[in-house]
Each structure stands twice: as C-alpha cells, then as structure tokens.
C-alpha cells in the first residue's frame, strides 16, 4: 500500500495587528507569519473501505470530526466525490491550543497529502481555498514560508524569509482559546499598533535587530492581562538576553528570537527553571 508522509510545521506571528471587528464576527487582521521547524508528522495510507480513521500517539486531542485533520479529509473527499478511505496517523509534537497553529497545520498537511494520495491534481490555490473553509490560518499553513496575511488571515502575499535565527518557544501550562481572546479584544480601543511597514522594511533589509524591534502583537493586551504567567515568561526571556520577545498568535506560547548560538543554552536553561515546555528551534527559511 502506498504511504504518504507530510510534515506539519508550527507557525509564529512576528506581527499581529487587528484593524477592526467585522460584521461576520471575525476580525480584520494584518499579520506577518513564518514557519519554525517544530512539526507534527502525518502518515496517510489508503483504507480498503470508504472511511476516515485517525490515530495519534497522544491521548489529549480529539480523533473524530472535531480534529482539523479529520475535517480536512472529509472536506476534500466530499468536494471531489472521492469514494475511497484513508487511515491517518498523526504524530503530535506541537503543543495544543498554544498559538502555534498546530491543528491548522495538520489540516493543511492532510489536504496536501490527500491531494497526492488520491491523485487529485489540485493546485496550491485550490488547496488554500479549501483550507479557508476549515480555519483562517489554514491557507497560510498550506502554503508555508513567510507571508503577509490579511482579511481574516486567509489572504496571503508572499514575503521574503526573515534573517535566520534561533527561536526559543516557551509554553506555560495553560490553554488559551482563540475565539475567547478575539472575543475579549477591544479592537476600537487599542492605544498602539505595531508598524507593518517597519517590519516589512526590516525583513527586506535582512536586519535582525530591526526585525526584533518591529515585533508586535495586539492580542497580548488580552492574554497578558488574564494570564500573568505569560508576562512572567516574556520578562524572563528578556532578562536572559533574548534579542526579541513576543507572544505568538492568541498565546500562551512566547517566542524569543536569538541570533547568537552561545546565548541559546543560557536562555533555555533559565526558562526550564519554571516552565516545563521549552523548545529550541530554527526558523524555516
Ligand atoms: C490568532 C491566530 C493568529 O495567527 O492564531 P492562533 O493563536 O489561533 O494560532 C489566528 O488569527 C487564528 O486563526 P484560526 O485559529 O485559524 O481561527 P479560526 O478557526 O478561523 O477562528 C476561531 C475563532 O477566532 C475568531 N477569529 C479568528 C480569526 C480572525 N481573523 N478573527 C476572529 O475573530 C473567531 O471568533 C473565530 O470563531
Ligand atoms: N489536529 C489537531 N491538533 C491539535 N488540536 C486540534 C486538532 N484538531 C482540532 N484540535 C482542537 O483545536 C483547538 C486548538 O488547537 P491548536 O490548533 O493547537 O491551537 P492554536 O490555534 O492556538 O494553535 C484545541 O482545543 C484542540 O482540541
């Protein structure tokens, strides 16, 4: 039996601005998103019966229709009239409900993989548009790389890779719901907004210090207030010498950008003192 493998990397938001709340309940955003090399892995294999079966080595995620990879398989099957079944094994490495788009990336990987397994010959644009039906971050996860995401996050413009660096991820032991965070955001009362042109300039000049200065995420106004432990992790990373520090997405994961390898071990060890889940990864360029 043919087996298809797909990697589903985590994303971080180098910049996340919210412009306004829309009538459909979503928020109009401007985000610079990029992938890091912490990834889930999906293994897909045809089943002799017309059924979607999902398994994982972890017990704390749903394996039924609530799972975004399951939803992706169901959507592509129904839309293209595929009368074949699939067994998907999900090797989960990305922390869940962390602001790292783990579920969205799994859905994107399932779309890419099933397109190959079932020889559907769908274009990248078609896969992205299917992805948009599953979640705002899924089109970016289908495409990967670095992008400016606008609309509710589904409209993508490619952006050059940021200068390569180390990324230290620290996830406090709390789960944050994206819907909750957007729900509590007072989009009209935001006092400051991160500057998108500044971040785009920093990337196009490949200036690591400028990228660090241009980091910004308006969702911190909600999550940092409600979860002091996230602010503590930010402060700790700054104290330990990370060059740039920001919460990713709706949180609670905080990432630190570090250019010099010799600083990484000190920051990692310092964080491990009070946060169990710390990862040292690279940006995917
Ligand atoms: C905040 C971000 C930043 O990348 O990521 P995460 O923190 O979830 O990783 C995204 O905007 C999350 O995208 P995603 O997780 O795909 O969101 P969706 O499933 O589409 O929406 C979940 C809920 O979030 C709210 N939502 C989402 C996107 C958006 N632009 N405005 C919103 O108000 C809506 O209430 C929606 O019901
Ligand atoms: N494949 C999946 N991996 C992880 N969580 C999933 C998946 N499919 C659905 N979920 C559900 O989606 C929610 C958000 O998960 P996740 O995508 O990891 O968060 P975030 O969008 O903050 O990065 C969780 O509550 C989880 O139960």
UniProtKB/TrEMBL annotation:
Pathway annotation from the record: Isoprenoid biosynthesis; isopentenyl diphosphate biosynthesis via DXP pathway; isopentenyl diphosphate from 1-deoxy-D-xylulose 5-phosphate: step 3/6
Molecular function (Gene Ontology), one example: 4-(cytidine 5'-diphospho)-2-C-methyl-D-erythritol kinase activity
Domain of life of the native organism: Bacteria
Domain GHMP kinase C-terminal, residue spans: 199-275
EC number: 2.7.1.148
Alphabetical keyword list: ATP-binding, Isoprene biosynthesis, Kinase, Nucleotide-binding, Transferase
Record keyword Transferase present: yes
Active-site positions on this chain: 11, 137
Pfam families, A to Z: GHMP_kinases_C, GHMP_kinases_N
Domain GHMP kinase N-terminal: from-to ranges: 67-145
InterPro entries (alphabetical): GHMP_kinase_C_dom (IPR013750), GHMP_kinase_C_sf (IPR036554), GHMP_kinase_N_dom (IPR006204), IspE (IPR004424), Ribosomal_Su5_D2-typ_SF (IPR020568), Ribsml_uS5_D2-typ_fold_subgr (IPR014721)
Transmembrane portions of the chain: none
Amino-acid positions noted as binding ATP in the UniProt annotation, renumbered to this chain: 95-105
Signal sequence annotation: none
Catalytic activity: 4-CDP-2-C-methyl-D-erythritol + ATP = 4-CDP-2-C-methyl-D-erythritol 2-phosphate + ADP + H(+)
Family classification: Belongs to the GHMP kinase family. IspE subfamily.
Role, per record: Catalyzes the phosphorylation of the position 2 hydroxy group of 4-diphosphocytidyl-2C-methyl-D-erythritol.
The protein's name in its UniProt record: 4-diphosphocytidyl-2-C-methyl-D-erythritol kinase
Organism whose genome encodes this protein: Cohnella yongneupensis
Originating gene: ispE
């Amino acid at each position: 039996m043919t087996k298809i493998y797909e990697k589903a990397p985590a994303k971080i938001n180098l910049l996340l601005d919210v412009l306004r709340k829309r009538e459909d309940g979503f928020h109009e955003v401007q985000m610079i998103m990029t992938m890091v090399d912490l990834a889930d892995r999906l293994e897909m294999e045809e089943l002799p019966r017309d059924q979607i079966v999902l398994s994982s080595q972890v017990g704390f995620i749903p394996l039924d229709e609530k799972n975004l990879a399951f939803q992706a398989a169901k959507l592509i099957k129904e839309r293209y009239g595929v009368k074949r079944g699939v067994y998907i094994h999900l090797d989960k490495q990305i922390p869940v409900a962390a602001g790292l788009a783990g579920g969205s990336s799994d859905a994107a990987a399932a779309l890419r993989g099933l397109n190959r397994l079932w020889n559907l010959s769908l274009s990248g644009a078609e896969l992205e548009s299917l992805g948009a039906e599953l979640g705002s971050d899924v089109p970016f996860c289908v495409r990967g790389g670095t992008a400016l995401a606008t609309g509710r996050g589904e409209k993508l413009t490619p952006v050059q890779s940021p200068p390569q660096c180390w990324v230290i991820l620290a996830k406090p032991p709390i789960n944050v719901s994206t819907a909750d965070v957007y729900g509590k955001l007072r989009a009209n009362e935001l006092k400051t907004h991160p500057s998108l042109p500044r971040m785009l300039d920093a990337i196009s000049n490949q200036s690591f210090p400028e990228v660090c200065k241009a980091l910004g995420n308006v969702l911190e106004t909600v999550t940092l207030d409600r979860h002091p432990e996230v602010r503590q992790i930010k402060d700790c990373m700054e104290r330990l010498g990370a060059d740039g520090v920001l919460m990713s997405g709706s949180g609670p994961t905080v990432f630190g950008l570090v250019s010099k390898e010799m600083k990484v071990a000190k920051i990692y060890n310092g964080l491990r003192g009070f946060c169990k889940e710390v990862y040292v990864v690279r940006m995917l360029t």
